[in-house]
Amino acid sequence: GPRRAAMSFGAAGAGGPQHGFMRSSGGFQEERSVHSSASFLDAFDFTAIEEMDPSLAEGHRVVYDREVPFELRVQDAEIGPQEVGTLEAIRCKILALGEEHRPQHCRIELTSESDLFFLYTHSVDELRFKQMQEHQKLMIDFPEYLSVVMKMLNHCIKEPQSYLAVFVMQRDGQARLDFIQNMEYKFVELLSCDFAAAPEEVVRQQITFRYNSVKSRLALMQGRLEDINALVKVKNPSLLLQLQKTPPRVGVKR
């Protein structure tokens, strides 16, 4: 369940690089984004695959989907949160239900490529947001909430030395995402969002979808590659022979 997801992450992340609170910029100076190979992937239509996403089952639409550098910490009820966390790229997917300017509900999902069981969600409607607004003295209204969260996530990608996303996980599956600005002379907490580890059944559905999505994308690309090979064979057989002799590159980073 939620505890297993949190513990699973702990085991997966334990060997990662250690970073102090002020060192959250390490390794993310270059923006890691799904757009890195966009020109190639634009040729493929993944709409049918994406529509199978269980996150869209209630009518939500995806308004944001990027990897963001997070500092992950595990909080012990007796000791408190770790002083030093691990820095990891966390995929942040934001979903909205209703009209763009009058959303009824929004959800933020956090997943990790290094731990398939890592799935946390933040769910908020107008009533829940009013509680956040009063508690944190926020000067925005619910329709502006998503755009503010997206802006903060983008700040964490583009200016990691100044904007930090710190994700604190508790053993019971509860978690909190703190957006913090480094003002050089002090840290200022800008916004805090409560998260909960997803139930095991939801985690299983997401893992199944992610596996089938990758499998389907691979099949599409292999089909396209076969078409290209057939075309090159007709137009330029010697080039195809040369391509087939070239050994594949191994370990190429995305």
Task: Describe the protein.
By secondary structure, the chain is α+β, with helices and mostly antiparallel strands. Helices cover 37% and strands 31% of the residues. It is built from seven helices and nine strands. A seven-stranded mixed barrel has the order 2-4-5-6-9-8-7.
Q: Short summary of the structure?
A:
This protein has 254 residues and is an alpha+beta fold.
Q: Work out the helicity level.
A: 25-40%
Parts with pLDDT < 50 across at least 5 consecutive residues: 1-39
Tally of contiguous helical segments: 7
What is the gyration radius calculated from CA atoms? 21 Å
How far is it from the N-terminal to the C-terminal residue, by CA?
A: 32 Å
Q: Could you tell me the strand content as a percent range?
A: 25-35%
Strand count, sense and barrel status of the largest sheet are: 7 strands, mixed, barrel
What is the 3D shape? elongated
Summarize this structure as a short list of keywords or feature phrases:
single chain, alpha+beta, elongated, 254 residues, 7-stranded mixed beta barrel
Q: What is this structure's SSE topology?
A:
Layout: H1 2-13, E1 18-19, H2 38-41, H3 47-50, E2 61-76, E3 80-81, E4 85-98, E5 103-112, E6 119-125, H4 126-136, H5 142-158, E7 163-170, E8 174-182, E9 187-197, H6 200-235, H7 237-245
Parallel strand pairs: 2-7
Antiparallel strand pairs: 1-4, 2-3, 2-4, 4-5, 5-6, 6-9, 7-8, 8-9
